[in-house]
């Protein structure tokens, strides 16, 4: 059965209604977006872009909508002093000022951050938004969560999923390789997130759903199979990656929590992101950090946690060791990441911050992972 058919079968089984409909991943999806808008009672549409995504897709979309007789308005999000567009209070207020009562619908034209800003504003003004990803860079396009930085602290608000999603493969394939590699990195992180999820059910009865597990694993496997095609920007590789990211997002929505897609590797990545924010450093791509964290966590589990578990041979510990042994070796993960265009300079985290995050990052979320188990059960140390 094809992956997408499995997704549909599982959604039916779990009585899960997709809020985002249609979801179009194809060549020419931009035309499908214009046709979709033409069929809705929409007159004024606000395209939210940044300077890069305006060139990549916004300009063409603006033109096509005008040809259809619609009245698009383009709002360009501005970068901060470091050159980053950030989902923070300033960017949100800038967009709110631009939105007037005549706007019927917003379109997020871009990658993760633009989606977070539009998702938040769209929910506040109670107008729908359409997702138009310009890079296969992250697994949150079709989710409800909007991580927003307020007064320097990042909080995820549960808001709205897009009403429809149109991802044009020819646009995605032209995205910077760092963004494509970041999307692949976000998916590679599922090796350890799925291991942590299984471990969490053994250690602390974290909730579990076998179908959602299988769905996320199938999305990960499909990415791994296409690693080289992804790195070469071949359309079948880009399509596999985009679909995998959307399936991962759908899996989280079906489950109602982020367990399938986020484990200790994401906790490390969040810790690094917060440190970079505090130190006013230029941000790294989410998936680039997750890739680096996946390598570090896999190595930590295979070398440190495994040895510590083997000091006693209880049933629980034997099962946890088996879970760790099923993880691929860091060298294998590293090879896949390189094939897909990722290299360590895309996440140049220094050794001191890595060590600090291995000690402290598990405090960031109330979630059982093998990293937390190691610190709180196997190797308890007073808090540093
Ligand atoms: Zn992620």
Question: Can you characterise this structure?
Answer:
With 384 residues, the chain is an alpha/beta fold. The chain folds into two domains: 170 residues, Rossmann fold, CATH 3.40.50; 202 residues, Dehydroquinate synthase-like - alpha domain (Dehydroquinate synthase-like, alpha domain). Helices cover 56% and strands 11% of the residues. It has 17 helices and eight strands. The protein has a six-stranded parallel β-sheet with strand order 1-8-5-4-2-3, sandwiched between helices. The chain has a two-stranded antiparallel ribbon with strand order 6-7. Helix 9 runs antiparallel to helix 11. The longest helix is centred in the last third of the chain and has 24 residues. The chain is globular, with a radius of gyration of 21 Å. Bound molecules: zinc ion. The site of zinc ion (ZN) has 5 residues, from helix 13.
- Strand-residue proportion: 5-15%
> How many domains comprise the coordinates?
2
Query: What's the SSE pattern?
Result: HEHEHEHEHEEEEHHHHHHHHHHHH
Poorly predicted regions are none
Biggest β-sheet: count, sense, barrel?
6 strands, parallel
Would you report the number of β strands?
8
Number of helices: 17
Helix content: 55-70%
The rough form would be described as: globular
CATH superfamily of the largest domain: Dehydroquinate synthase-like - alpha domain
Lateral arrangement of strands in the main beta sheet: 1-8-5-4-2-3
Output mean pLDDT: 93
CATH architecture of the largest domain: Up-down Bundle
Instruction: Using the CA coordinates, give the radius of gyration.
Output: 21 Å
CATH topology name of the largest domain, in short, is Dehydroquinate synthase-like, alpha domain
**Ligand roster:** zinc ion
Broad CATH class of the largest domain: Mainly Alpha
How far is the first residue's CA from the last residue's CA? 51 Å
Keywords: Cytoplasm, Lipid biosynthesis, Lipid metabolism, Metal-binding, NAD, NADP, Oxidoreductase, Phospholipid biosynthesis, Phospholipid metabolism
EC number: 1.1.1.261
GO molecular function: glycerol-1-phosphate dehydrogenase [NAD(P)+] activity
Protein name: Sn-glycerol-1-phosphate dehydrogenase
């Amino acid at each position: 059965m094809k992956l997408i058919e499995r997704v549909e079968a599982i959604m039916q089984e779990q009585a899960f209604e997709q809020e985002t409909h249609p979801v179009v991943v194809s060549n020419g999806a931009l035309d499908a977006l214009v046709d979709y808008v033409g069929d809705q009672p929409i007159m004024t549409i606000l395209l939210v872009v940044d300077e890069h995504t305006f060139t990549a897709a916004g300009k063409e979309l603006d033109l096509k909508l005008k040809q259809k007789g619609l009245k698009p308005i383009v709002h360009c999000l501005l970068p901060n002093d470091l050159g980053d567009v950030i989902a923070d209070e300033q960017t949100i207020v800038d967009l709110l000022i631009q939105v007037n009562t005549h706007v019927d619908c917003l379109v997020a034209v871009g990658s993760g951050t633009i989606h977070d800003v539009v998702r938040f504003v769209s929910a506040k003004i109670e107008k729908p938004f359409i997702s138009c990803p310009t890079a296969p860079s992250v697994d949150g396009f079709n989710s409800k969560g909007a991580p927003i930085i307020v007064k320097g602290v990042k909080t995820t608000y549960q808001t709205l999923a897009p009403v429809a999603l149109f991802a044009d493969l020819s646009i995605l394939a032209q995205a910077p390789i760092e963004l494509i590699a970041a999307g692949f990195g976000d998916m590679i992180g599922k090796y350890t997130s799925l291991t942590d999820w299984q471990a969490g059910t053994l250690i602390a009865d974290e909730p579990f759903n076998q179908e959602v597990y299988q769905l996320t694993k199938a999305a990960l496997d499909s990415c791994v199979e296409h690693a080289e095609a992804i790195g070469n920007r071949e359309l079948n590789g880009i399509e596999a990656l985009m679909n995998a990211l959307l399936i991962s997002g759908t899996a989280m929505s079906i489950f109602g929590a982020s367990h399938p897609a986020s484990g200790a590797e994401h906790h490390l990545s969040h810790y690094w992101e917060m440190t970079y924010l505090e130190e006013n450093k230029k941000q790294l791509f989410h998936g680039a950090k997750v890739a680096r964290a996946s390598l570090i966590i896999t190595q930590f589990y295979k070398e440190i946690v495994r040895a510590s578990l083997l000091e006693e041979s209880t049933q629980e510990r034997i099962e946890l060791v088996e879970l760790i042994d099923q993880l691929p070796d860091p060298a294998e993960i590293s090879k896949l990441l390189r094939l897909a265009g990722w290299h360590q300079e895309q996440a140049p985290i220094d050794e001191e911050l890595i060590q600090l995050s291995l000690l402290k990052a598990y405090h960031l979320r109330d979630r059982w992972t093998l990293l937390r188990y190691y610190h709180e059960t196997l190797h308890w140390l007073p808090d540093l």
